[in-house]
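Re: the request from the purification team.
They wanted to know what the chain is likely to look like in 3D before they choose a buffer screen. I agreed to run a prediction and write the result into the notebook, where they can find it.
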Amino acid sequence: MLSPAQIVEDYGRRYVIRLPEKTLLEATTRKKRVDFACGDEVLVQPLNETQAVIEELLPRRSLLFRQDAYKTKLFAANVTQVLIVAAAVPAPSEELIQRTLLAAEAAGIQAALVLNKSDLPESTALQHAWAYYREVLHVPMLAVSALSDVTALRAQMQGHCNILIGQSGMGKSTLTNALLGEDVARTGTISVALAAGRHTTTHTRLYDLDDKTTLIDSPGLQSFGLHHLNAAELLHDFPDMRHLIGQCRFHNCTHRQEPDCALKAAVLAGSLPEARLAFLQKITDEIG
């Protein structure tokens, strides 16, 4: 008889699944299938007290992933909030943040910006520089310090299945430990076996904060491919531009040289930053 379970750790081809009674089992898949993600709800066939086989994927409510010209990388499934972690030091990639926000919008997942290391003097300038995300895109921006106070972050996470996304060096692991406690964040026995011969930070893991709140910690990333998005529908995923859809003279406007372009007019009027239009053009070229 098949049992319902949730994938709580993803090692690429091997997984840790959790049964309803909280039992953890090491799991493999049929025919080397690897298109499962941490957070997925599945049906499994237990083999013994420690192992199971994943037989079926249950419908997903959401899926966050990235895709470049060569491969697809699944982050997590059934996520309801993406927490984008950044810090003033080392210098963060604003384009990576914009790409993550775009992917979350396209997937129907709400997002929040977490500015870690808020005690650094450079943090205030970064908050001012990124005010556009908060004031125009309406992305919550939380200033926290993983080493002293994560109260605001904990409140933002309440009731959600959250995933932490960010570059290496932004303090994601320290935030995870602050939210969970060092002992909870340590890898368990099954994880040690699955991670043998590899860096444990290259896997994705789900933690329970309480009965209604979960946290998925993912490896640090330096790029975020968006080849899975549709270039023709891209404007729908830009909250600051979607109100201009249909207002260009030409229905197939590329928002570059065409006359009477609503987006270029918005840039000239000062209501749309030129950098946002340039970002749209870059992604359109990349995925088109």
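For the purification team: The CA atoms of residues 164 and 217 lie 5 Å apart.
Please add any questions underneath this entry.
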